Structures are given as C-alpha cells and as structure tokens.
Amino acid sequence: MNEQAPQQVRRRLKLRAWTPVFRSITRSEQMADLPDNECRLFFVMLLTCVDSWGHFELDLDLINSTVWPLLKRSDTDTRRCLLELERVGMIRGYSQDGVAWLEITKWEEKAGTILRKRGAPKFPPPTPAPERQTLDPRLLYTDQDRYLYALQQGRRAASIRQERLRAARLKGTHTCEEWEVLLTVAQGHCPRCGALAGSLQKDHIVPLCYGGSDAIENIQPLCRACNCSKGRETTDWLAKRGLR
Question: What is the pLDDT of residue 180?
C-alpha cells in the first residue's frame, strides 16, 4: 500500500494537470473549424508529445512516428493535418539555430502554469518577437515527394515547350539542310563567344516564349553555355559577325 500510494498520487496530479488542457480543447472554436476528425485526433495526440511548454521539433518523419505510430498514417496525412492546424491557428512554426520547431498557440490558456512547474522546456523556446514564422511546406515533404514534384514540374515544362514549338512552327519552319548550312558557316565555333564547341545547339533568336518563329531566319547555332545564359537577348550573332 505504501508503494502504490505515491504512484496513485502522481497519476492524479498528472491527470489534474492535463484536465484544463483537454477541457479547453473540447470548447475550442478552432477545433470545430478543422475539416475532419482525423485532424482533431492528430492534435489531441500531438499534445501528448510536446514538452511542458508546448514545443516540439518540426520534423515530418519524427512527428509521424511519434504521434500515431500504430495507426499507419502516411506522411501525406501528417502533412495535411499540420497545415490544417496552422490554418486555423492552433499551431505555428519557428526556428532556432537553423532547426525548425512548432509550438501550440495560446499554451498559457490551454495548460496554464500547472504543466510549466514540471521543469525546464525540453525543446528550445522561440525568441520573444511579435511575429512568428509560418510552417514552411518544404519542411513537410519527404525525398520521394520532392522527386515526384520535380518530375511533375519537368513534365509540365516539357509540355509548355511543345505547345510553344507548335505555335512557332505555324509562323515558319526550317529543314535539316538549312540547319546544316548554318553549322557549316559557323565552322564549329560559337558565333556569340567564339569558343570552339564540340556540338552547337539550335537557338531561337527571338525566344519561343516571346512569340518567335521556327523559321531558319530565327535560328542560330550557339554553344550550350551561351544558349543557356543568353536570357532575353535577341541578337543575331551570325548577322553581327557578317556570316549570314
């Protein structure tokens, strides 16, 4: 009996400490603004992971494995819940020494000073400032997500270029023989920088994004470096060198 009594006292004290937290949650209007019960469950379970000051590391894998390790939720589910919680103002992000963290907003109202009597914060608190950072969505993406996003963006860029090329060919086209003539005139040298290049690329003098055509008059051979760095330049370097 003497050994069980201290344990029961500790459990009662812990329950008493968490009672105002969960009472404030059930009465929160922000809780009602969340789109579904999954986000509400996520927030309740997140409260059991933060330190006594309402802070936790903003790491997607860590949060996913700590908050609901047995429910087999995906990174996408965790990311969605975090963004929804930030949208309604229940959490917010901050950074300390290059590391991203999150904090429960209005922690004083939710937990009072009861939980703060349990000791120093486990995670670094935010510096006093009137403004807080928002959750950076890039921190909430895994390597696979970044790969799929880059792949999607690459396909989108290729699709846009194909559409612009089709529009340019309606204004004019060129043949392979005409292109070979330009390569012969250039004699393997880039007319823009003068460097001897192993292979010259087709460059549209007036870029396709600005309505340039695909006619041979709008084509010039450039090295890879010049073709990638010319930007909005519309100089006909063959004509400028007297080669056209």
Answer: 92
